[in-house]
Amino acid sequence: MSTHSAQQNKKELAAVVQQHFDGASADWMNRYTGEPSSMADLDLILRRMNVHQLIRPLLAAADRRLQVIDVGCGSGDVLDGLPRDVIRVTGMDFSREMTRQASVSHRNDTFARGDATKLPFGFDTADIVTSLGVLEYVPNPIEAVSGIAEILRPGGHLIVSFPNRSSLFRKMLRAERAAEKSLVRLRDIIQRTDKAKAYASQYRHRQWTPAEAVTLLNRAGLIVEAMLVNTYGPWGRLGRFRIMRKLSAGLSRRWTNPGFASKRLACTMVIRARKPDHEQ
């Protein structure tokens, strides 16, 4: 593929991602409240729970107000419930509609539109960066993580989520979606309809094993301090059953530490990594 074609494809995929999240912005904050209607909704809630668990020790140890930047902030709800006299929050998102919604509902925080691979912040400006559900949509994740490392102050922390490629439930979902896509294509062949364009502009949803996630952070010069895992349950059609979500929520609240079994079952990892001090 030529450089021009690659750049054009990158722009097209970025437009698809932006369109998706612009369209989801009006209802995004509602996914954090009330009864989750899908396994994906539950995963949002559980990821935020783990972020709070990982960030609270940092706030307790702080001797000043900390600057927190939320990269891919969505509707701005990830840091809800954390005291604003201890943190000053700046949110950034690729979706203009997401940042607009966040600005309306979180008037004490600051929001801006931006690209995760071209962060609109200076070097060494953030004490903590949070980034949930972002890297899986980024064409070059190491570029994004390296950029985040640059805006962190020495000794600062990144708290970031990764979809777990090792998860049995993620593998089940991939198999289900592959089967559904094959059936749709077979239907199109039988009906003699051309839906090629419908498949051409699909973005890639990246996933990592726990070891791959740690390696990615290490490559950006960050030191992994802690990992929590969540969401034990199927995401496809089975995930629509309320009993499945309740079981997943219960397991996720009791089984947060990564072990041999949990690394192969939990759908999502939330990792806290530290930027070394200058003297290190």
Largest sheet: 7 strands, mixed
Poorly predicted ranges: 196-201
Strand content: 15-25%
CATH 4th-level superfamily: Vaccinia Virus protein VP39
Q: Counting H and I runs of at least 4 residues, what is the number of helices?
A: 9
Global mean pLDDT: 87
- How many beta-strand elements? 7
Report on the architecture of this protein.
- The protein has a seven-stranded mixed beta sheet with strand order 3-2-1-4-5-7-6, sandwiched between helices.
- The termini are far apart.
- By secondary structure, the protein is an alpha/beta fold.
- The longest helix has 26 residues, at 3-28.
- The chain has a single domain (3-274), classed as Rossmann fold, CATH 3.40.50.
- It is built from nine helices and seven strands, in the order ααββαββαβαααβααβ.
Short description:
The protein has 9 helices and 7 strands.
Topology:
Blueprint: H1 3-28, H2 39-61, E1 66-71, E2 87-93, H3 96-105, E3 110-113, E4 126-131, H4 141-151, E5 152-163, H5 168-191, H6 196-200, H7 210-219, E6 223-230, H8 242-254, H9 262-265, E7 268-274
Parallel strand pairs: 1-2, 1-4, 2-3, 4-5
Antiparallel strand pairs: 5-7, 6-7
Helix pairs in contact: 1-3
Question: Keywords for this structure?
Answer:
single chain; 280 residues; alpha/beta; Rossmann fold; 7-stranded mixed β-sheet; 9 helices
